[in-house]
Amino acid sequence: MNFLRKYWQDLGFAVALLVGFYLMINWESLPQLQVILWLSFVAILLHQFEEYRWPGYFAGLFNQVIFRSEAPERYPLNKQSAMIINLIIAYVFYLLPLLFPSIVWLGLAPVMMGFFQVIWHGVFANMKAKSLYNPGLFSSLFLHVPIGIWYLSYVNKHSLINPTDWIVGTIYFIVAVYILIVKGNMWLRNKSSLHSFSKKQLGPYRS
């Protein structure tokens, strides 16, 4: 568990490279919708790598800037909670659409989460930190957004999406954000946590 807690984002980066290689050699034979969904999965893995490894100081931003924590190295976000929340998001929320590509609302919700990341990182977090960049913004703008637009364009062009998909997908997205991000961080917070972030992961936001 200690190994996973320390290197989950690096393992995710390795998975992203493997998927990228798989897509490269099978690009012509794979259905385009499957390609888009695989790329969406790669996007979240690279997003998490950007947040927690390179440049990797999202934890400091989250705890110190957003929550004004007196213990930003472990509260409210800590290494354990970050690992659990992000693994569920990547390997459940983003992989389910690949298992059921015909269920469009399953793929629509991660697309919405990708667009939401742009608002969170690009507007909310930057305003709070009085900055132009924070870890997660680059992948949001240059991976989540174009892949999300591609997905929406594809399902619209092939008449795969209907009003029910929009309604259910939006509800699913809101519930996922509430449970995994909002409540998840509250349920797993622990002022006495032994799983502290490194100085590098706190970045310029050390107390």
TrEMBL record:
<keyword id="KW-0812">Transmembrane</keyword>
<feature type="transmembrane region" description="Helical">
    <location>
        <begin position="166"/>
        <end position="188"/>
    </location>
</feature>
<keyword id="KW-1133">Transmembrane helix</keyword>
<feature type="transmembrane region" description="Helical">
    <location>
        <begin position="31"/>
        <end position="49"/>
    </location>
</feature>
<keyword id="KW-0472">Membrane</keyword>
<protein>
    <recommendedName>
        <fullName>HXXEE domain-containing protein</fullName>
    </recommendedName>
</protein>
<feature type="transmembrane region" description="Helical">
    <location>
        <begin position="102"/>
        <end position="120"/>
    </location>
</feature>
<dbReference type="InterPro" id="IPR025671">
    <property type="entry name" value="HXXEE"/>
</dbReference>
<feature type="transmembrane region" description="Helical">
    <location>
        <begin position="77"/>
        <end position="96"/>
    </location>
</feature>
<feature type="transmembrane region" description="Helical">
    <location>
        <begin position="7"/>
        <end position="25"/>
    </location>
</feature>
<feature type="transmembrane region" description="Helical">
    <location>
        <begin position="132"/>
        <end position="154"/>
    </location>
</feature>
<dbReference type="Pfam" id="PF13787">
    <property type="entry name" value="HXXEE"/>
</dbReference>
